[in-house]
Sequence to fold (129 residues):
Amino acid sequence: MSLLAKLFGPKEPEVWPVHVDDSNFDSEVVRSQEPVMLDVWGPGCAPCKKLEPVVLSMAKRYRGRVKVAEVNAAAAPRTMEKLGVMGTPTVVYFREGREVERVVGFRGELYHEEIIETELLGLGDSEKP
Fold:
């Protein structure tokens, strides 16, 4: 073990959102065994860029409990039509293949955390980590 590894501990593996497009939306979202947070973003969208670190944080924090996924709206027209997404960023939350919540526009990490814990994981205040 290197000196840095001893000092700072083993490096945690990086966690990335699952990429979704028209070809895998049903398998990755609708038929997912885990609840899903789906980030719908668009190229050149400044609020989408601002949301990116929030989405990455949620992917890391809820790994193994919630599937965090992302879809480029411009590259998935059938999925956008199916979801009725009119603008980006939009975050859509699914449980058992059904939409349970939708957030349009930028919201901070605590906002999304609250939705995940109450709507997707069903945690009450006493059960939150």
About this structure: The chain has a mean pLDDT of 91. Residues 69 and 106 are 16 Å apart (CA to CA).
